[in-house]
């Protein structure tokens, strides 16, 4: 009847992961010494799989994961390509922050994905592969210079883009469900394209190159009926 097995912060290496006869399970192997993705097929029907904070260089081996997987965490490793996840049709959370990713690929089939965390990588261009159901996206601390690419994410509620090189706020008008927008620590000179974001609650604009606040009043006019608690400059 075991539901969660956590072995985080141990000294587990690849050879130490052996078959266990366990069913629907949350398996935590973060903070160890894994150099590759363990053979997840030896655990039947894993629902949550966490191998963050290891020394993994490739996602090779995830093709053996059950299609029932709902949450996958591989942050703080050395992964350089998104691969072998196309069959994970029930995946809801994908965490690949703090790796060495350059491009966003192979996610077209993740139609149930709600959260995508890709902060602290080397991504230059947004490519969300048609993920229309996604609600949270983090691309903080990458190499973005443009906000284009989010136009089809109509269900998006939280968008984190701080610490990039973004020059202009654009492509936001269709994101009518957006509640949180973080574009701090970029190269913005003005506030644009948020007039239709009537559900916006948090707007982070600190550490940019904005000189005047004149555009703010007009930009948040539509939010007044729903309340606009504040924004950070």
TrEMBL record:
Superkingdom of the organism of origin: Eukaryota
Pfam families (UniProt xref): LRR_4 (PF12799), LRR_6 (PF13516)
Keyword Repeat: yes
Residue ranges of the TM segments: none
Keywords linked to the UniProt accession: Leucine-rich repeat, Repeat
Gene3D superfamilies found in the cross-reference section: Ribonuclease Inhibitor
Protein name as catalogued: Uncharacterized protein
């Amino acid at each position: 009847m075991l539901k969660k097995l956590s072995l985080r912060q141990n000294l587990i290496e690849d050879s130490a992961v052996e078959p266990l006869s366990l069913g629907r399970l949350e398996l935590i192997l973060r903070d160890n010494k894994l150099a590759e993705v363990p053979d997840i097929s030896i655990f039947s029907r894993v629902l949550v799989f966490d191998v963050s904070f290891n020394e993994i260089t490739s996602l090779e081996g995830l093709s053996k994961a059950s299609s029932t997987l709902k949450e996958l965490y591989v942050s703080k490793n050395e992964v350089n390509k998104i691969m072998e996840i196309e069959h994970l049709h029930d995946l809801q959370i994908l965490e690949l922050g703090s790796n060495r990713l350059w491009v966003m690929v192979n996610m077209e089939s993740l139609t149930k994905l709600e959260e995508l965390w890709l902060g602290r990588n080397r991504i230059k261009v947004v490519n969300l592969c048609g993920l229309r159901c996604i609600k949270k996206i983090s691309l903080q601390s990458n190499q973005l210079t443009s906000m284009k690419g989010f136009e089809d994410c109509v269900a998006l509620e939280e968008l984190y883009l701080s610490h990039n090189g973004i020059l202009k706020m654009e492509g936001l008008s269709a994101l009518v469900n957006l509640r949180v927008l973080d574009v701090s620590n970029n190269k913005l000179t003005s506030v644009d394209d948020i007039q239709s974001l009537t559900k916006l609650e948090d707007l982070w604009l600190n550490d940019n190159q904005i000189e005047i606040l004149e555009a703010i009043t007009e930009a948040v006019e539509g939010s007044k009926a729903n309340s606009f608690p504040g924004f950070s400059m």
